[in-house]
Amino acid sequence: MNSGDTEGRVVDGRFALEARLGDGSMGTVWRAHDLVLDRPVALKEVRPPDPGLAEHHPEAARALRARVLREARALARVDHPHVVTIYHVVNGEGDGDGDTDVDGAGDTGYPWLVMELVTGGSLRERLAEGPMEPAAVARLGRDVLAGLRAAHGAGIQHRDVKPGNVLLRPDGRPVLTDFGVAALHESAALTVTGALMGTPEYMAPERIAGADGGPESDLWSLAMMLYVAVEGRHPLRRRTTMATLAAVLKEELPPPRRAGPLTGVLTALLVKDPAARPDAETVDAMLAAAVAAPPPRTAVPTPTPTPTQASEPAPTLPPTRRGAAPRRLVIGLSLVVAALTAALVWALLPGADSTGDADTGVAAPSAGVPGRQTPEAREPQKAKKAREPADLLTPDGIRQAVTALKAETGTARVGGFVVYPAHISAQAMVKGSEKRYDTYTYRVGQGVSRAPIGGTLMDGQLPVEMDTFDWDAVPELLRRADRDLKVDRPTSRYLLIRPPNELFGSAAGLTVYLTDDYGTGYLEADSGGRVTRVVPAGS
């Protein structure tokens, strides 16, 4: 269908096309008018990059149409202020069921999505005017993240988070749109051989490498978008698509210069290893802290405080290390050194290192004194609390979480396993698969919960048994990290396993990270806890 001939026509006998709003690899978006409800709407015909698919591969086209419809209907159930609202879906087949194409004549081949019309332009247009302030970017990031979490909860990954896919309402509130890549991803092999479903500058490295990725891949894209928004430049964009893809896969990420309180969340998410990225809940807390942080001020000599002054909070200053030269964050292709600074401000989460208050459950009253618990009734709850470590970065804490994860998932095989003081994130392998995993979280005082979406291991990465590692070595590794990594006052510490990787010829191992406001240090060990590499902060 020629788009020039389409303008002024009517889709499904109801939606009059008025003006083209934009074109993309997945279709053209139009401003239209709903003749039935007398309101403005946006229409998009979702189509693959290969226009000849319907003609040359009719079965593939039908399969694609069915998947697009499933995704659109699932997205239509996501009722969230930061996700574009889907009003209606026009099938596009012209099969006599009322869902016909333009003027009811012929077959467009692909569905039309009828959506709310967001009139404030896009984030891409806003950024063309210049970078944004860190607090504004953090607020925008929280809103977009909230929309992503709603979509992930419905089983939908976006796969193409970028400034052009974030629309702005007139009051500046962002709306995440264009989930077409999610719908078309599984059909890539049926369209253009080797085609990438997504925008290279914003794709997570694991997706470039061929893995499906999970919610953590969308979080990478979100962080890259926020980096561009606050810095005014893309750190890895190159002259050609292939050069950009190679840069995302293997080049060092220049540290942000304007990000201020956003620096922590950007460096935590923009790591090559998806298992080392903080989860959405942690990211939300980090963004909230960045929103609340006072603007940085130039340091000035501070007089000796009076008793009144001593009770006031000190001004927030940009983190600097006296005499330190600028340095770059080393983020290599190898999974062995990829996970820098994840969960930088985990300690900011409310109650992150607490097991909770006193027992609040109501037990059956004893026979002797109405309304009171017997010692026998109270003992199991108190004993359970006493047995549960408050800090999971201990041998007992890790083993307790491993036991609970095994019981919940039915497997000890994982593709990733990250231990924070108050929670553990695990990629538990799906039964019968060497590549697919489901994501689970174990939290102090809460037990095991499962994320709605799993993922696929990166090429070369192999599953590993959680029992492969000597957890008794963890205390000594943490002591060695405190001594040798030159992180004076850590704001975050965590441990992750390194699964074996046949591409790099690397065996399973452990890595401990310490982070403060100035940088990150890490040490690597084999599965038995023998230290093999020490990289202090600033090196």
Automatic annotation (TrEMBL):
ATP binds at residue 44. The keyword Transmembrane applies. Residues 15-287 form the Protein kinase domain. The chain crosses the membrane at residues 329-349. Residues 375-388 have a biased composition (Basic and acidic residues). Residues 294-323, 358-388 are annotated as: Disordered. GO terms for molecular function: ATP binding; protein serine/threonine kinase activity. Residues 294-306 have a biased composition (Pro residues). Its EC number is 2.7.11.1. It is an enzyme of class 2 (transferase). Keywords: ATP-binding, Kinase, Membrane, Nucleotide-binding, Serine/threonine-protein kinase, Transferase, Transmembrane, Transmembrane helix. InterPro entries: Kinase-like_dom_sf, Prot_kinase_dom, Protein_kinase_ATP_BS, Ser/Thr_kinase_AS. It comes from the Bacteria. This is non-specific serine/threonine protein kinase. It comes from Streptomyces paludis.
